[in-house]
Structures are given as structure tokens and as C-alpha cells.
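Example for tutorial group B:
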């Protein structure tokens, strides 16, 4: 029997899973770590926290196992890791949900040109992306920028520590705003206009290509390590979303509506992201809600720490659709789709004396779902067909939340039987790269199985539509207020 390891380097923790070649979860371990917010809207992590978590989980899942064929990565996207000439971390990583780089986004747009930037990178300048973070360090910490000899993404820093190789993959690199997404390689034009030395960047690989071999960590010596993928691209593989017409919704720290495409399809307004996907020479389009699972975690931590998530589901399910006219905007960390507004903030609207904790819990879950519906609506506007929807990730494990999405989308919704999406996707990529499987598509067909679909309720959908229509207007009325708050 051959074995594969999938490592998911997330925002709240790292999860590592050992699979056999049939996709069965043999052993897994998760190690959590903190996120620092030195200022309002900032978000940073220590890359060595990721590395220590990877070492601990790798040692656990691989102990006593022979026949490990390969290792694949899934990783939180966009985070900036800067190394000096000796390969040491210069400063904490500025991660995906950090919103400090508004001025740098303006600088990028001015240097490259708004339309040209979208033509090349398939996205407008965004605060969450890596390019603006690079410019922020250059503008605000010139001494650190001068020391920098290597720029890596979170999972690629782990690759460097495991193999000594500086490498990335096309899906994760797409979120740096430095890649020509159609050509699947670094854009010399963008790098020149932003005055970023190409030698700082890692070599770009397709997701299932071998990038190096484990060495000098005391375990797994010589095991091949493939390029891997950004977290959502890996989750797509792990859920079988690898052919046109398939889509998934994930509710992790952030939330995503992701659709596979056979060609790069770009929204000129920049409301959704077009990236290379983990399947060679294919792409995907995704809308992003910054504060999805984060919203429920935040509310629970501060106002309902006595409740488990299963108890929250049960309580929220007992409240009628619309939470008795209470709405929630999940913009705790600004928002991407569809507003592209780093100044947007979380908001409850319609609070009255009748509302109790149970109403707020329901409103939070509905608000996150409405934001994900916003993402789906943009895909429809772009003409992207969605014939099959999966619910995956942390929120996807909640039968109640899946039911809510099914009714709100008015679409049959399934989930995968084995809920290890990103880790399984990373392992499948490792298997393709090391010859365990002939292709990504064939591996998914043979390994992944699904639950019976949820069938939407027409009456529930009609009720959600009433609240969703009001929800869509709230941001318009508060946009200027969010901007004014940011200036205080």
C-alpha cells in the first residue's frame, strides 16, 4: 500500500493527514497558533509557528509508516514572507486578511494602469494580495525591504524549510498580483512597473509537479514534495471540483464560492478573482467573503463561549428565517466580493428589544450566507454555468448551514463523504506528481464520494429572498459611514 500526506497550513492552525492510495484517512493531527492584530485592520502571523506546527503534525502522522510516496501542500493565500540572504524571516508575515495597504493599491493601479492590471493579473489591486504588501514594506519599513532576498507565500516558506527549495505553484502565485494568469508565469511587465526584482520570487510550477525532496528535518528523508496549491484550489481538488459546471461553497475563516473554468474568465469590475487552478492548464473564478466562519467564531468567543457549534446550530435553527428582522453584515475584516472595500466593517441592523442571543446567532449565520449569495450572483452575471454545488469546509460540516445555503441558493447542494477537502486535495496532487494516479481528474473520480443532495424548499427560498433583498441595500447606505470611520 502506498501512502500520501496532505498538509493544510491555515490561518487558525495546520492540519496534516496521512491517506492511503484509496483516499482513506489513516491518521491526522491539527496544531493551532495565534494571529496578531497590532492595529485595527492589521493581521500578522509568525512563520515559525506554521513550521513548528508542520513538524509536530508530520512526525505524528508518519510515525512507523512505510511507503509514503509524496507530500502535498495546501496553504492560506496572499501572505507575505520575507527572508534575508541566510534564509531567516525578517518580519512577521502580513497575512491575507490584513487591510493596511489601501495607499499601495492606489500606487499599483497608477503604475500599471487599472485596465492593464486586470488584463494581466485578472484582478484589480487588492489590499489582501501580496504585491501591495510588498510595496507597503518598501514604503514603511525600508530597512526590512533592503534586507529581503526572497519573497515566499506561507506554504512555500514551509517547503523551503523542508526541502531547501524556493518554489511556488500557479494557483497560489495567482493571488500575489504579480503573475500573468493566462500565461501561468510571472509578468515581467508588472514586475518592471512596480520595480520589484524578479530574483526575489520563487520558481513557478504546476500544482502536481515535484519541487524538491525532504531533507535535514530528521524524518521522511528523500520523500518528494509537490508544488501543491492555494487553499481553495486544493479544496477544489479534494472535493472533485475539477471540471466545468462544478462549484463549491466553503465556510472557513473566510468564505468562498468557487467555480471551475476551462479558460480564464475575467470580471472587468474586479468583484471576483480569476486564478489558475490546480488542474494543469485550467482556471477558476471565486468570490470571497472575508469574515465567514470568523464571524461566528468571533461572536461565540465574545458572547457565547459556553456554547458548542452543534449547540449554536440547534439554537439558530429554532429561530425563524430572517431572525425576526435582524440583519448582520459580516465585514469584520473589510470585504472583497462584491464591494472591494477594506473599510467595510461588521454591522448588526434592526436590533430591537425582542432580540435575544439566539436571534444574533441566526443573524450571523444568515449574514454570512447572504454574502456568499452575493458571490454566486456575480458568477451568474459573468455567464459562468453552475450546475452542481458542494458545501465544504468547517461550515459545510453543519447540516443546518448546508440547508440554509441550499434554500438560499435555490439549488441542490451536496457535500463530500470524507470531509478532508484541502488536505485530500494536497495529497491527490502529491499522488499525481509521484505517479500514484494518472491525472487529477481520474484520481478525483476514483476516490471522492458524495452525500445525497439537499433539495431546496420553495417556501424557505421565498422567505430568504425577502431578507436578502433588504441585506443587499444595507451596504449602500453605510458605505460613506464606513469610510468616515476609517478616518477617525
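The residue assignment follows.
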Amino acid at each position: 500500500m502506498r501512502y500520501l500526506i496532505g498538509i493544510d497550513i491555515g490561518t487558525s492552525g495546520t492540519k496534516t493527514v496521512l491517506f492511503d492510495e484509496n483516499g482513506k484517512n489513516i491518521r491526522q493531527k491539527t496544531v493551532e497558533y495565534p494571529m496578531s492584530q497590532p492595529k485595527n485592520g492589521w493581521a500578522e502571523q509568525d512563520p515559525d509557528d506554521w513550521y513548528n506546527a508542520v513538524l509536530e503534525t508530520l512526525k505524528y502522522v508518519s510515525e512507523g509508516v512505510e511507503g509514503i510516496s509524496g507530500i502535498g501542500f495546501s496553504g492560506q493565500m496572499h501572505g507575505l514572507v520575507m527572508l534575508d540572504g541566510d534564509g531567516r524571516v525578517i518580519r512577521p508575515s502580513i497575512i491575507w486578511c490584513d487591510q493596511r495597504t489601501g495607499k499601495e493599491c492606489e500606487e499599483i493601479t497608477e503604475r500599471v494602469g487599472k485596465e492593464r492590471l486586470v488584463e494581466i493579473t485578472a484582478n484589480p489591486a487588492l489590499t489582501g494580495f501580496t504585491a501591495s504588501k510588498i510595496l507597503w514594506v518598501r514604503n514603511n519599513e525600508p530597512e526590512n525591504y533592503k534586507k529581503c532576498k526572497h519573497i515566499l507565500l506561507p506554504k512555500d516558506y514551509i517547503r523551503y524549510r523542508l526541502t531547501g527549495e524556493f518554489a511556488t505553484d500557479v494557483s497560489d502565485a495567482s493571488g500575489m498580483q504579480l503573475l500573468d494568469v493566462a500565461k501561468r508565469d510571472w509578468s515581467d511587465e508588472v514586475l518592471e512597473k512596480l520595480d520589484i526584482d524578479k530574483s526575489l520570487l520563487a520558481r513557478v510550477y504546476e500544482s502536481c509537479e515535484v519541487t524538491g525532496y525532504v531533507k535535514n528535518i530528521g524524518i521522511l528523508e528523500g520523500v518528494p514534495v509537490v508544488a501543491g496549491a492555494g487553499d481553495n484550489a486544493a479544496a477544489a481538488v479534494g472535493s472533485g471540483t475539477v471540471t466545468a459546471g462544478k462549484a463549491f461553497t466553503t465556510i472557513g475563516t473566510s468564505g468562498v464560492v468557487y467555480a471551475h473554468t476551462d479558460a480564464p474568465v475575467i470580471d472587468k469590475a474586479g468583484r471576483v478573482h480569476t486564478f489558475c487552478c490546480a488542474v494543469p492548464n485550467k482556471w477558476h473564478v471565486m468570490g470571497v467573503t472575508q469574515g465567514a466562519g470568523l464571524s461566528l467564531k468571533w461572536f461565540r468567543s465574545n458572547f457565547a463561549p459556553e456554547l458548542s457549534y452543534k449547540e449554536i446550530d440547534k439554537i439558530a435553527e429554532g429561530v425563524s428565517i430572517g431572525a425576526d428582522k435582524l440583519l448582520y453584515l459580516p465585514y469584520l475584516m473589510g470585504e472583497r466580493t462584491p464591494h472591494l472595500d477594506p473599510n467595510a466593517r461588521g454591522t448588526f441592523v434592526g436590533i430591537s428589544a425582542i432580540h435575544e442571543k439566539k436571534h444574533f446567532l441566526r443573524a450571523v449565520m444568515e449574514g454570512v450566507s447572504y454574502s456568499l449569495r452575493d458571490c454566486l450572483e456575480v458568477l451568474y452575471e459573468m455567464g459562468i454555468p453552475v450546475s452542481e454545488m458542494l458545501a465544504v469546509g468547517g461550515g459545510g460540516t453543519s447540516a443546518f448551514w448546508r440547508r440554509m445555503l441550499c434554500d438560499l441558493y435555490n439549488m441542490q447542494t451536496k457535500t463530500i463523504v470524507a470531509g478532508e477537502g484541502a488536505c485530500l486535495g494536497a495529497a491527490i496532487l502529491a499522488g499525481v506528481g509521484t505517479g500514484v494516479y494518472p491525472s487529477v481528474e481520474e484520481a478525483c473520480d476514483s476516490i471522492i464520494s458524495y452525500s445525497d443532495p439537499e433539495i431546496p424548499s420553495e417556501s424557505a427560498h421565498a422567505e430568504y429572498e425577502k431578507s436578502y433583498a433588504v441585506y443587499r441595500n444595507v451596504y449602500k447606505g453605510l458605505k460613506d459611514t464606513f469610510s468616515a470611520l476609517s478616518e477617525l
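The chain has two domains: 3-232, 241-415+457-488. Compare this with the pattern of hydrophobic and polar residues in the output above.
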